[in-house]
Specification:
heterodimer, A: mainly alpha, 2 domains, two-stranded antiparallel sheet, 2% strand, B: alpha/beta, four-stranded antiparallel sheet, 22% strand, globular, binds adenosine-5'-diphosphate, binds iron/sulfur cluster, binds magnesium ion
Chain lengths: 327, 331
Amino acid sequence: MIVFVISRLLQAIPVLLAVGVVAFSMFTYVGDPVGAMLGQDYTEAQRDALVHKLGLDQPAWEQFLHYIWAALHGNFGYSYRVAEPVAHLFAVRLPATLELSFTASVLAVVVGIPLGVYAGIWRRSLLSRVFMVGSLIGVSLPTFLIGILLILVFSVELGWLPSFGRGHVVALGWWTTGFLTWSGLRSIILPAITLGLFQLTLIMRLVRAEMLEVLRTDYIKFARARGLRARSIHFGHALRNTLVPVITIIGLQLGGLIAYSVVTETVFQWPGMGLLFIQSVAAADIPVMAAYLLLVGVVFVVINLIVDLLYYAVDPRLRIGRGGRGR
Amino acid sequence: MSAPLLEVRGLTVEFPTRRGILRALDGVSFAIAPGEVLGVVGESGAGKSLTGAAIIGLLAPPGRIAGGSILLDGARIDHLPAEAMRRIRGRRIGAIFQDPLTTLNPLYTIGRQLIETIQTHLGLSGADARARAVHWLEEVGIPAAARRIDAYPHEFSGGQRQRVVIALALCAEPRLVIADEPTTALDVSIQAQIIALLKRLAREHTTAVMLITHDMGVIAETADRVAVMYAGRIAEIGPVADVVRAPAHPYTAGLMASIPALEHRVARLAQIEGAMPRLDAIPPGCAFNPRCPRAHDRCRAERPELMGAGATEAACWLHAPAHAESSPAHA
Ligand SMILES: Nc1ncnc2c1ncn2[C@@H]1O[C@H](COP(=O)(O)OP(=O)(O)O)[C@@H](O)[C@H]1O
Ligand code: SF4
Ligand SMILES: [Mg+2]
């Protein structure tokens, strides 16, 4: 088990290094930070001094090692745009994005799986058809449109829920949370629905398809032939057998949620990483963009590890021998 | 014969399709006495599995029982409410399927699957159910059962898995087991062991068995009586010795002629000229008439029902009283 986790972590190193190379090369090939920082009037000497200070006169591989080394210590340099440490910007923004992604993914899983199970078991029922048609809408409407529609209905027309921001937040050390205040909870509802709807419909359709598949298998027929209760057959035997592919997709999708909450955060002016990223792209703020890329890489690696551990927990066949390879 | 344990009368199963209704079973009637082994043979597609599925109430939709009745211990069990039928499955009628590699849930230990089945039907405590599960694994010949009970299906060989399947089918002590080709998917060397095991357990627990198989040799060794199915109907039924020695139906006679010698048991049935008709193209009269060497005019016009034919019953005009006078039956 521990060997498995360690080997997985070792496998992640080359991946993260590759992401690091891409992130680093943005400094070299995108924009002109020196020009941007110096402004209009400067002397050659000033320019050389700055170049030296930023380490841009060293060979590329040396700069790369410096960059990775510093990143490992939580130092991603200074934002060109707001002249603050990137790490500091992230610390302020990350809780907002993580809380939003977490809420959206809980929503997607907690609603998507039961709907999928229902639609798989009673696939001819009217309600199942309603779910399927509804899910098509969820999949095909663009996120920003969903967000705007929700705002229109629940904020503008009905006035029930706030349309932007996080509401009041409470600081727990450096982490700020909106989960502990009424306005914080109200504020997260619409963005979480907007962000999670696509995943919800995807999970539902996937669970339904997998359930249909599994319900046809011999071991389900045999479970019925032994007179087991329908509840146990559907949830104990069938659902569990759908989990390996479902976990895979959920894992990939959640990574996406965290990484690409850009649109939702923009629509709802949610003060998270996505909004920061958009602002940084507009300003060619390379250190922030590069660090964001690294962060996304780490998020995906962590999620992959969790997915593998879940496989391991769900499917005993993967535990034999070296164990842990996804199917 | 004592009062039958299972009685099937005129069972008809249909599948509504876009091009009309397919009648896959047409008036199937037979009975099984307590503790009796009834062999069921016939070419693939004859309706053997459907008969078993109809009895345990697990016809796959859109298939449905369109006529006839099924009685267990004298009480009708066709068209029971789903929950009542569920309580019968496993508890009063067990089932064994063909492929042990796919009949066990891969994600649960065999112990969990046994214990769940036992607790569902017998309401034992966890410890008692586990003891019973171990006992049944020993019964079916799993070595070191107390330890192996916590193993997963993939840790067993195919033959051992079929033993586990048998334990699962029998662990709530049903009085009837429907075994649908229980050895077809197994290695030839293991088939005889599994059949012997099934035969021994059925005898020791006075469990009746409906043994569906392609293998006439297995039937000859194991069954008390045999039903021969053809195109959704029973062609002949009777004591196994009589059917083997003096088959009354020309189709049965053809099957017997194709019994391979014991050492070549793998060879399949159906070395009779031609093929069984598709369900939507069953000829009028006797369904076997296009392939029958003894077909005559009546066979093409009128459909024969089961009728007494010496020690057995056969659905064949050769045994009609009128016919018997003019030309004695000798198949
Ligand atoms: N879902 C279905 N739809 C239409 N026909 C079916 C269906 N299932 C089975 N049948 C027909 O029922 C007949 C009997 O099948 P089965 O009982 O499986 O035969 P076997 O004797 O080989 O076990 C076959 O001819 C098959 O075509
Ligand atoms: S009824 Fe006629 S066709 Fe059918 S089996 Fe008997 S002899 Fe052959
Ligand atoms: Mg079959």
